[in-house]
Amino acid sequence: MEDTGKISPYTTVHVTICEGHGVQVVGETVKEYLNSADDFTICDSKGLAIADTAETRDLEFWKTASRKLYAIKTQDLAKAKATRLGKNTKKNRIDQEDNEVLNGLLEVELEMKNSAAKLSEHLQEKTNELSVSVTQVHTNAAQVAQQCSVLNELKAKMSEMVLARNISACLRQTLACKMCTSIPATEVVVTACCGQVAGCGPCTQTYLKENDSCLFCKAPVFATKLIFLKGFSEVLDQFQ
Ligand SMILES: [Zn+2]
Ligand SMILES: [Zn+2]
Asked: Minimum-distance ligand to the CA of 188?
């Protein structure tokens, strides 16, 4: 308000009202916003100060009274009142006066933000969505883990099979008679001179009829350097 009595619009302040907040908090917010040393009184559209009561501390009051409210420096309030009282009391003049008051006072627009209940409902909704997502992630992780486990088992079995097949092929090659290439039927003849499998008994006997030295290392007196391993029939059957 200027000294001439003419009141000019100043600025608009948006204030968020919370449960339990009253007119005093609104006044403080305005003061803080304007960085002013002066206190402000919150008035209704008629320029009348709103009292700080249980009713005006209720969120419902601000909902129904919402719209535009005005903050005026407390020290200017009396001046505004005097101006109002000094006016003609006819209805049309009152309206005009109201407009002047409206123009001269700092506007405060009150915005109703989500109530605590709405916020809580929203949070619950988000929590549920999150919970569903987490469950899905767990389910997917469990399925992947199961598939990995099956794959690992298969891999291990295949490794065993490959190993068994390799061992089998290796043993077959080692046990095979070096003269007739078949697997000995009952006994395996091993050389004591160089420690190798010579082959089957019958082939060895045939070999000795014409040879005296080892068929591998050529050591002499081969007949005395032979070991006839018996008792392997069952094992040898597996390689026939
Ligand atoms: Zn043989
Ligand atoms: Zn030998």
From this structure: 1
User: What is the H or E stretch that residue 188 is in?
Assistant: strand 188-191
* Alpha carbon separation from 145 to 40, 138, 141 (Å, rounded): 66, 10, 6
- Round the CA-based radius of gyration of the chain to a whole number and report it: 53
Q: How far is the CA of 234 from the centre of ligand 2 (A)?
A: 27
CB distance 105 to 47 below 8 Å: yes
Using the mean position of ligand 1's atoms as its centre, give its distance from the Cα of residue 173 in Å: 13
Measure 213 CA to ligand 2 centroid, in angstroms: 8
Q: What is the pTM of this model?
A: 0.38
Rounded to whole angstroms, the Cα distance separating 39 from 221 reads 127
Give burial (CB, 10 Å; 0-12/13-18/19+) of 65. Answer: middle
Residue boundaries of the structural domains of the chain:
12-118, 188-238
Tens of pLDDT along the chain (240 residues) come to 434 444 445 677 777 777 777 888 888 888 888 888 888 888 877 777 888 888 888 777 777 655 567 888 887 777 766 665 555 444 555 555 555 555 445 444 444 444 666 777 878 888 888 888 888 888 888 888 888 888 888 889 888 888 888 888 888 898 999 999 999 988 999 999 999 999 999 999 999 999 999 999 999 999 999 999 988 788 888 877
Query: Which two three-digit tokens encode residue 36?
Result: 């002013």
For residues 95 and 10, what is the distance between their CA atoms, to the nearest angstrom? 21
